[in-house]
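user: Please supply your own:

assistant:
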Amino acid sequence: MPVILAIESSCDETSAAVIRHGQVRSNVVANQTVHVQYGGVVPELASRAHQQHIVPVVSQALAQAQTAKTELDAIAFTRGPGLLGSLLVGGSFAKALALGLAKPLIEVHHMHAHVLAHFIEEPQPQFPFICLTVSGGHTQLVLVRAPLDMTIIGQTQDDAVGEAFDKAAKILGLPYPGGPLIDQHAQTGNPEAFSFPEVQTPGLNFSFSGIKTAFLYFVQDKTRQNPDFVTEHLSDICASMQHTLVKILLGKLRRAARELKINEVAIAGGVSANRGLRQALRDLANREGWRVHVPAFQYCTDNAAMIAMAAHYKYLAGEFVGQDISPEPRLAF
């Protein structure tokens, strides 16, 4: 069974992990606070920060796992999707390390890894299962038949749900990253205080651009009537917006599970850390008779442990790449 060093650098977290015999032994993540003042991730600043963090992060991951570089059987990295500059840092480091150690190289799709984060710890989903993968850049329903056999059965036609959360937070004047703050304020709000439109989309696909626009107009209109509206009703606004977004997500998930007659359901990606989504999913699962799987919080947001788990399965399947591999910011699923 292989010992693999995995590197994740798709956006603004620099992370390294070591997996040994299918068990994650370390998972180190360095966050970037430089983007807070800009209200979002600045790609050039992200790539520079990755350059600063990657050596100490990798060293710390190896040390925590009590693993020498010579013990490694392969080096894995996120090929995409993500920010080009960020991907280049992680990919170039992984290629150089693999070349220097004469070890095979494994490229990993970032969204595949989010799905496979469910196999880091017990209990693990049984195949086949449906995974709702939700993040700042993606919203997908994935049918998972095996670790390396996944098919998108529904996805957003425009914006990701994570972007909708962050955009709503920005409109409300909340600091970046705003999605977790929406969730925080929603805990004390009335989810039925205000209503927002749900865009109807064909099949199992999603759309979130319309609700972002409607939310903007709603806040602008209410603020014209009462300049203190947001301050006075912040919790109720957040709870109502979160309720609408979660309702859209789970409506499509329920439809997919019923159509495919599957009762193994999972969620993954950064937005899966949302407490409102987790609770609503548990409630729905009780009504539908589902077995629900949610990764530990540290494996929901971007991290190298999920890259390592994906690489473990690819190693066993003999799926390696050469030194001519390049990052793909829009890597197809």
Notes: The chain has a mean pLDDT of 94.
